[in-house]
Amino acid sequence: MFLIRLLFVAPILALGIFFFVRYRRHQFWPLYFGFSLFSFYAFFFGLVPYLPSYGGYVRYAVGITLSAGLGYYAIKTIRQFIETKQAELQVSTQERSKNIQAEAAEKALENHFCPSCGKDFIIKKWEIPFKNNEIDAYKLVADFCRHCGLQLFKNCNQCGNKNFAHLPFCASCGTKSVID
User: Which residues of 68-89 are buried (b: 16+ CB within 10 A; e: fewer)?
Assistant: First the structure.
């Protein structure tokens, strides 16, 4: 019974794993992801209960193999992400600021993080010296990212208002910003 089920489930599982690894960023990724979920369902509920039990060793071996394979894949993916992020940060700040899109800049400003490195740009109250127990709100925002050096805020050439450097227009007067 196990071998008959294996004959049907093994190709489905192999195809599901192939789709997940190869086409997860494809235009039709939900279709491929759905097939991958179906193949895992077919494996775990259609085949695993019928694995021959030699004291549970076969099931343990399958679990260990799957855990090791998925762990290796996850570690490899995370390392690639870290390497790409480090390579991006090696580029000069002027080049990085040219590559930032308006939508990403909006999201970065809304969530208070640098659009280049992803770190928070809000300076905490205890990190700056202040006089007379009064802190100006603009002093709590750094003009340059403390982690990667990217310029975050600059003054408008027309009205002098402080704006997020990667947005296309001034929030006060509406003039087009010149991104260096």
Answer: eeeeeeeeeeeeeeeeeeeeee
